[in-house]
Every structure is written in C-alpha cells, then in structure tokens.
Automatic annotation (TrEMBL):
Function per UniProt: Tetrapolymerization of the monopyrrole PBG into the hydroxymethylbilane pre-uroporphyrinogen in several discrete steps.
Protein name: Porphobilinogen deaminase
Organism the protein comes from: Marinicella pacifica
A Pfam short name: Porphobil_deam
SUPFAM superfamilies: Periplasmic binding protein-like II, Porphobilinogen deaminase (hydroxymethylbilane synthase), C-terminal domain
Gene3D superfamilies named among the record's database cross-references: Periplasmic binding protein-like II, Porphobilinogen deaminase, C-terminal domain
PROSITE patterns according to UniProt: PORPHOBILINOGEN_DEAM (PS00533)
Gene name of the record: hemC
Pathway per the UniProt entry: Porphyrin-containing compound metabolism; protoporphyrin-IX biosynthesis; coproporphyrinogen-III from 5-aminolevulinate: step 2/4
Cofactor note: Binds 1 dipyrromethane group covalently.
Keywords tagged on the record: Porphyrin biosynthesis, Transferase
GO terms assigned for molecular function: hydroxymethylbilane synthase activity
Oligomer status and interactors: Monomer.
Length: 307
C-alpha cells in the first residue's frame, strides 16, 4: 500500500531545515507517513535590518507557514517553540513537542572564555531584549548592539571583529555542527533562557484531530509538560519578544515540575524573580506569573514595550 505523504512547511534557513528534517525522520520512523518539505521565506527572515520587537514579534516567522496550511499546501509546520507566540490562533495547535535539546544560551567569542572575562565597555551582539537585559544586569558596563541574521552570518560578523562576543542559543549551534564555537554556556538558574528554548514543535490545523493524534507519538512527555508550564506563564504575562522574560521548567523525579522565571527591565536594572513547584503545568505557569505580577511585572513589561 502506498504511504500517504505529509508536507512539512518550514522556514528556508539552515537551522529550520535541520529541525524539519529531524522531525521528518521521526515521522517516517514512528508513523505510516512519508514526508516532503516545503521551505518558505517568512517576513521575519526578509526584514533583517529591523529588530524583531519593532517588527511585531516572532510570530512573523510563523505567518506564511500557517497560511500554507490553511491553503492546503502543507499539512504541518515545524518550529522552534521559542518562536511560537503563547496566544495561538484558534485555527492551529501544537500537536507534538520533541525532546528538548540544550536550553542554554551560548557565550561565543574568539578571544574570551566567559562573560566575566570581557573587558569594560566590550561590544556584545544580540537582538534579544531578554539577553540584552540579562547582560546589562550582570555587566552594566557592556555595549549591547543589535545582531540579526542566520547562525552563519552572525558568526561571520563576530569573526569580522564587529563584536567582542555574541550570544546565541546553544541548541542551534549544536544542531548545525558549531558546538566548538561555544566558549561557555549561560545556564539556569543564574541565567534564564527564552520560554521554550531548545524545543522543536509540530503545528497542525486544530480541526485535523486524527493527524494530531497520530503525530502525538513524537512528543516527549516531560518536555511537553515543561513547555506547557513555560507557555502558560508567558500567556499570563502577555509576553512577546518585545519584552524581557526568561523561564526554565524542569521535570522532577516525583513527576512534579519546577518552574523558575524572571522579568527584566531593558536596561537590566530591575529584575523580578519567582519560582514554584507543582504538578499541573498550566496552573504552575499561572501561579509563577501571578507572583511576578504581584511584584510589579506589569510596569516593567510596559517599559520593555516602549524600548
């Protein structure tokens, strides 16, 4: 019997293609489907001269892929979960979250081994408000300058001497074979990653319950629980890439989840922290978010929106 072919929409970047091929291999190994890829260039990829916060957020990496699904050109889309807005349109759902890779941020430099090693006033590249805020919280003397583009072009800008160091996601570097470029890792609990960083998600149409059920076998149970907790936190905080929120959830041996989160002002001078342990991921995310809101997170997040 001929196997049905699933079309996977993906951004047309080296990292996105790696992730989508990884998902395609898992689908072919664990289901009766064959796969084909539909690479696409999104608005977020085209407009590299503008920071994501000014463009309107990371949802710009999803729009074209979701339109392809609605038009019947693709069956599913593959995303870095940190790019998926917490408040998804009703037409779509995340039907699988694969096992999380390294969730840390990477300190990448050709001359320095760690953040502490940087000289006063060193230029560090990132276009993430969360990374910027954490950098300035730890090292207010640094100059943080914008850095966008794919992983290769960002590394090239570092090699060209435009920055003393850059901050990238460890998972992306590892997936593309650049693990040796990581001078050191910035890790929880001292440094918090983006919500859902390191996890790959599969998005499908909400009305295709059969496909969603068939693809749920790809999900890693503990990762999915942790991602649900982090996304519930982000949803309650009404977070986007325009604000500086860090979060990291871990599944513990008693089947509970520990969630730590922080909200930062853009200049890093104000930092709010909260953490909690619980069993229901959505409730846990809301409880930690409400703790942050009770400390004044709404006012700090409003500052980020204006930055």
């Amino acid at each position: 019997m001929t196997k049905k072919i699933l079309t996977l929409a993906t951004r047309d970047s080296a990292l996105a293609l790696w992730q989508t091929k990884h998902v395609a291999a898992a689908i072919e190994a664990r289901t009766d489907y064959r796969t084909q890829l539909l690479p696409m260039t999104t608005e977020g990829d085209r407009r590299l001269e503008v920071t994501l916060s000014k463009l309107g957020g990371k949802g710009l990496f999803l729009k074209e892929l979701e339109q392809a699904m609605l038009a019947g050109e693709a069956d599913i889309a593959v995303h870095s979960m940190k790019d998926v807005p917490a408040d998804m349109p009703d037409d779509f759902l995340i039907c699988a979250v694969l096992e999380r890779a390294d969730a840390s941020d990477a300190f990448v430099s050709n001359h320095y081994q760690s953040l502490d090693d940087l000289p006063d006033g060193a230029v560090v590249g990132t276009s993430s408000l969360r990374r910027q805020a954490q950098l300035l919280s730890l090292r207010p003397d640094l100059q943080v300058k914008p850095l966008r583009g794919n992983v290769n072009s960002r590394l090239q800008k570092l090699d060209d001497g435009q920055y003393a160091a850059i901050i990238l996601a460890s998972a992306g570097l590892i997936r593309l074979g650049f693990e040796d470029r990581i001078a050191s890792r910035l890790t929880a609990p001292q440094w918090l990653p983006a919500v859902s960083q390191g996890a790959i998600g599969v998005e499908c149409l909400a009305n295709n319950s059969q496909l969603a059920e068939e693809l749920s076998v790809l999900s890693h149970a503990d990762t999915h629980l942790c991602i649900r907790a982090e996304r519930a936190l982000n949803l309650t905080l009404e977070g986007s890439c325009s604000v500086a929120i860090g979060a990291y959830a871990e599944a513990l041996s008693d089947h509970s989840i520990h969630l730590k989160a922080a909200v930062f002002s853009p200049d890093g001078e104000q930092v709010l922290n909260a953490q909690q342990q619980g069993y229901d991921p959505e409730s846990l995310g809301r409880v930690v978010a409400e703790d942050l809101l009770s400390q004044g997170a709404k006012e700090i997040l409003a500052l980020s929106e204006q930055a």
